[in-house]
Amino acid sequence: MIKVFTWSNESVVFCKESGDIFLLSSFNAEILTLINNNINDHQILSKIIKAFRVNRHDAQIFLDNLYLEYKSLNLID
Amino acid sequence: MLVSELPIGKIVTDLNHSGLCFKVGPFNIAVTSNICAVKEHICDFYYHYACKKDNAFIDLHVEVNSVKGVRRWYKPQVSFAFDGYEPFVPLPLPQAAAMFEWGLNWAIANTAHQYLIIHSAIIEKDGYGLIMPGTPGSGKSTLCAALVNRGWRLLSDEMALLSLADGLVYPAPRPVSLKNKSIQIIKDFAPEAVFGKVVPDTLKGDIAHMVAPESALLQQSIPVKPAFLVFPHYQDHAKKKLKQLPKARALMTLAEHAFNFNILGEEGIDAMVNMIDQVECYDFTYADLATALEGIDSLIK
Q: What is the spatial distance between Cα A61 and Cα A64, in angstroms, rounded to a whole number?
């Protein structure tokens, strides 16, 4: 559904369905890839906690917001 | 055989009837026109182009003809047709030659999908291909015209043809289109350059075409490997600034300049990514040609 191209700390995400492209931070693009690969939330949350040094609650809020945003952009089902 | 080697009578007959056929880069083009200004334009600007080889396929058949009807007596107009289809509304007769050039751009951009077509000037020196996409007013064509009068080879001032097959950019050198103040700037900068008549008051302002240098025509079958992607920005009184552009951002901007990205989809993004991987990307702000040329030349030193 998507293709991700990463250079240092920025990525371009190409949506195969719409043909749209988006500029994301490499970290957010990595999370998007994990979601699209059906990696479970537990593993994704661990990644967020480690990257931002936040507690589980804050990590969950961050992930929920990403889900909403990616859905609105049709980047995830 | 070159167009210039054809008897003038045959050039005129072909333009009037079956179409005058010549080769521009990878394309065989047939032009039909009943308008004197277009015939003069072809003779002035395409005289040294190679004729199409016998039995070679014609890729683009374009016609620029006067519009029939009563109107032709008091406000004559011209229409452009590509394979019989008229994509534009007619324009006033004095803009016939400009309409031919714009129409040919349109025809290439809408059919040559074996290439990713980038709205860009493309030039080459010492084997380094320099792609300069630019919005109107960015100075893309002015900079391109100046550089090709200082030793760079012109591939195109209007579109880069990035091959999906091999990642090289193929030349399609044609007259360089200059607008408004740029016309006099380049005439002053390169008095040896040959220009056609100025066509006033077009949709883009005053337009004049500069003849493509002979070096560009002699090498029009030789593609180049892109080495630099430079987004020019002309700004009055600005200090020259050549700033490296992060590749992800360069890709986003490049996509805005790709005419047929929406048609090519995944193939198009793959072609752009492959290119971005192998080029250095810059934003280039400049205020005058002398410092602009210094900046561009510094890339290959």
A: 5
B-chain residues near A10 (CB < 8 A):
246-249
pLDDT band at residue B53, thresholds of 50, 70 and 90? confident
Q: Is B93 helix (H, G, I), strand (E, B) or coil?
A: helix
Q: Quick check: helix, strand or coil at residue A13? A: strand
| Whole-angstrom distance, CA of residue B234 vs CA of residue A34 | 43
Q: What is the ipTM of this complex?
A: 0.94
Selection from B231, B224, B226, B222 nearest residue B274 by Cα: B226
Does B266 contact A21 at a Cβ distance shorter than 8 Å?
no
Q: Which residues are within 8 A (CB) of B76 and not within 5 positions of it... i.e. 6 or more apart?
A: B66, B67, B92, B93
pLDDT at A67 over 80: yes
Please report which residue ranges of chain B form alpha helices under DSSP H. Answer: 8-16, 36-45, 71-74, 96-111, 140-148, 181-189, 214-218, 247-256, 261-264, 266-278, 289-299
Instruction: Name, in order, each residue with C-beta under 8 angstroms of A52's C-beta and a sequence gap of 6 or more.
Output: A58, A59, A62
Q: Which of A7, A11, A21 sits opposite B255 (nearest CB)?
A: A21
Residues 6+ apart with CB under 8 A from A39: none
State the Cα angle at B30 between B25 and B32, rounded to 5°. Answer: 140
Q: Give dist(CA B148, CA B251) in Å, integer.
A: 26
For the whole model, what pTM was predicted? 0.94
